[in-house]
Structures are given as C-alpha cells and as structure tokens.
Amino acid sequence: MKKIAFPLICFLCFTSYAQIPSKSSNDNHPPALSAIRQSDLKHDLYYLASDSMHGRRAGTLDELNAAAWIAQEAQKEGLQPAGDNGTYFQYFPLLRTVTSDNSVIKINGNNLNLWKDAWVTEPIETNVNGNVLWLSALADTVKPEINGNIVAINIFPPTPEPPMWVSLWGFRYVYTAIRQQSDALKRHGAKAIILVADSTASVALTSLEHVLDFEEGSYDLPGDYEPADDDNMPDDVPVILVNADAARLYNNPVQALPLACIKTTLFILR
C-alpha cells in the first residue's frame, strides 16, 4: 500500500482569479478575468501533458513531479496551502492490484509470454485447466455450451465503433470490444475467456502499448471495491487477450482451438 500525493489544488491553480466575485456594474466578469491568458493556460496544459511527465501514473514519481509542479505554481500565485501539515498536498492510501509475472498461460502445453503473446485484461487470481470451445461468430456467444467451459473467439468490431475523430481511437476500439464480448460470455457462464486479437487490436497492442497497459493493473481506494451490479455478471472470470500468432501455436490454425487445451494459473500482487 502506498500513500499518494493527490494534487487537489489543480483547478484552483488555473482558475484562482476567476473565483473572485464580480464587483463590476458594467458586466458579469470578475475584475481579474483579464489576467487569465490563453497562452498561459495552453502552456500549463501542454506542460502537464508533455512526454516529460510520462503520463503521471498514480503512485509513481512522475505523478509526484506533476503534483509538486502544480503546488509550485499555486505558491507563485499566492494561494495559501490547505493540505496536510501545512502543505499543498492531501495524502491517502491507494491500492494497486497487478497480475504477477509468475503467472503461467499455456496452450497445448506451450507457454505464452505474458505481455507479449498474451495479456490478462484484469488482475485476477485463478487456476483454470481444460479444453477450449471455439466460437466463430458473435452469434455464438449465446450458445448453451458456453456454460462452464473455457471459450475462445476472435475480437470483432464493437457496436457501435468509436467515431474516427476521437483521440486514441485504437485504445477505445480494443477496450470496447473486450468489454462487450467478455460481458456477453460471462453472462452465459463462461469460466474463462480467450479473445484473439484482430488486425486493429494487433496494431493497437504495438502502437498504443503505453496506453493499453494491462500489466499496470488496477487502482482502488481501501473499501472502495464494489462487485458488479449485474447478478448474472461474475467478476472472477479471467479474460485473456492473445495475438493471432499465439493462437496458431506451432502451426495449429486458429480453427483448431476447439481441440486445444489451455492451462492458466494467474497470481495477483497487491
């Protein structure tokens, strides 16, 4: 468990002048509004979003550097600290759960390299061993044979697809497709799910590796975990994304997966 410095003063820093009540009878603008310049806002935004901040991931030095920079800017503007122990920071415990590198995933007895051939989409501790039922179409996700079995299916485009103009389109495509298909299979009783990356997901896994960071796990506040609201949606089903090459291990075509056997032992670290 780590204590994380959370920069609560972020918005105060950038809008401090705008908080002053208007005293002008000519308009409704705060008297110091003219001190807020677009160039300053752009500078601050671009600095926090720059590559030098490395994404500001929670619990890392990059996040601490970003928080320290915001506190420094707040101090320059004359804002008084209101955080813990007279600082600009409020500290709180943050729980991070990750899939252990000691986890094992095998198809037909062949090890898959974690985070290279196979990606565990959510940290979960489980031990699954059995034959794989291959589904060839989205319509197959309602088959009664799914119940109690390990199932595999290609990733199909999500419905609807993210609009092409949105940022990180590939990221949104992959996550939406994973959520839609895995939710459908979970509802019908799958005990483990293998999703085979399509061409779009394969490109995203390479070009958006820093965004599709499945190995980074999940973050929660203590006591903040809530089970799924849907009673038909179990939260203990492993969902594994594999690339097409891994699914064709040793010249076995993807279509041969019904005859394949997968053994998965996943450990989690908190």
Please characterize this protein's 3D structure:
This protein has helices at 10-15, 38-48, 61-76, 169-187, 199-207, 244-247, and strands spanning 2-6, 90-99, 104-107, 110-111, 118-120, 126-135, 150-154, 192-196, 218-220, 239-242, 261-266, 268-269. The protein is built from six helices and twelve strands. It folds into two domains: 2-88, no CATH class; 99-217 and 224-269, Glucose Oxidase, domain 1 (3-Layer(bba) Sandwich). The chain is elongated and about 70 Å long. The chain is α+β, with helices and mostly antiparallel strands.
The major pleated sheet works out as:
8 strands, mixed
Q: Estimate the mean pLDDT confidence.
A: 78
Summarize the helix and strand pattern as letters. Answer: EHHHEEEEEEHEHEEHEE
Q: CATH topology of the largest domain, anyone?
A: Glucose Oxidase, domain 1
Percent of residues in helical segments?
Answer: 10-25%
Number of helices: 6
Uncertain segments: 1-25, 250-259
Give the beta-strand count.
12
- What is the CATH-assigned architecture of the largest domain? 3-Layer(bba) Sandwich
Over the alpha carbons, how many angstroms does the gyration radius reach? 24 Å
Number of structurally distinct domains: 2
Shape: elongated
Distance between the termini: 7 Å
Q: What is the SS-derived class?
A: alpha+beta
Q: What portion of residues belong to β-strands?
A: 15-25%
Which CATH class of the largest domain?
A: Alpha Beta
Strand order of the largest sheet: 4-3-11-6-7-8-10-5
